[in-house]
Amino acid sequence: MTLHTWSWLFLFGYIVLMLGFGVVGNRRVSGADDYAVARAGYGPAVLALAFASTAASGATFLGLPGLTYTYGMSTLWIAFLYPVGVYLGILICQRTVGRYGNLTGVRSIPEYLGERYGSEALRVSAAVFSLILLFYLAGQLVAGLVMFEMMLGLSKGWALTITTAVLLGYVTLGGAHSDILTDGAQGLLMVVLAIVIVVLFVLGVGSGGLTQMLDSLGSQDPRLMQPLHPGAAITASVWSFISLVIAHIPLGLLPHIGNKLWALKDERARTRFLVMAFTFGLILPAITLGGALARSALGDSLFAGGDGGANTALPALFLEIFPTWLAALLGVGILAAVMSTADGLVISTSQVFANDIYRRSIVPRWGSRREAAALDRDVLLISRVVTVLVLLGSAWLAWLVMDMNVVLLVWVGVGGFTASLAGPLVLGSLWNGVTRAGAVSGLWTGAVLFVLILGEGLSGRWPSGSILE
To answer: Staple partner for 340: which of 40, 111, 183, 237, CB 3.0–4.6 Å?
Structure first.
């Protein structure tokens, strides 16, 4: 059978499995709180896999190999340093966020901040600015588009449509329960795939051995073997990697990741959960080594596909070195990485409207006579409707930016959110002296500076001629 036939076959099995989890998740949803966070519903093993796979995302499984294909071994710093930042942040914040969130019954990170500091302005500000994570979601859809286009032979339009439809099918059904169940299964598949890539790298498969592979990289471009690559700001200096760790500290508390802290069934298992999640989190970035294998085996041929061509490095490698059926099966592993983050992003974004704005701001002002059961039904309905709208909006955004590297696209969303919420979340966990005014001003200072730097209204470079340049 051809690649496309095998891919359709495996895709059908994957969709059936994910929809099955969606049905199971739907049976566990008894109200809006279940849909939003699946509170106290899962043990440490499943939750650790779900947490690690959500944090890794399509940016790790497509974007990072693409960066390694482009810039070489210097990008390995990015791959293995970002989990250090993520889990350092979780270590700092998990007790405060996890315990306080369960005690107060909050359903989102913006709502947690509002309760923590007693500030509606902070809650609404965090909720509204978290919509910048739509860029993050768009990045996952672009990654899914790349996989469907390459493995199924579809046009970009159909590839994006199917990616969106698959997500829509199971996320709308079971909310956070579907998110955690599918992410746990997908996380296990991703761990296996990452280990396979490590073995392939050590053996130098496709290049005749490890030494030959490294020699091939050096002969194509000596900079590919350098610890720092001057071709991109993210690999050009030690400062880039220091900032990478710091910037990832709040990433584990992004709304679609941090809300999983409230799904842990037993508080006493929190340490076990963290150790397991960190272990999985260090294994998954090993997938980046596939970018080096692809550059050695394929040369610079993928650049002919434009700026987004490097995103296909990993699936192109599979097609080059494996039988067709195995390449198609491994392609499903990459698709799992995409879906594992996208579903959580959809759920957390829906809570901005259903929970943070409607339940916490609109109802207290204009619907205070609503009975609790009726309000819960309203919030659940709004959550599901907004889930559909969020996916459609993100699909449109993904269509506009599909040629951008997935990692860089994701960082538009991640960077904006972490710039604004690092202070209230992380410093607020370390120091009880953070005030309401300090939290609000810290959020808006970070948000405004991020927008100015992204829009090039303010330079993010070190002062010219300084010792730090």
So the answer is: 183
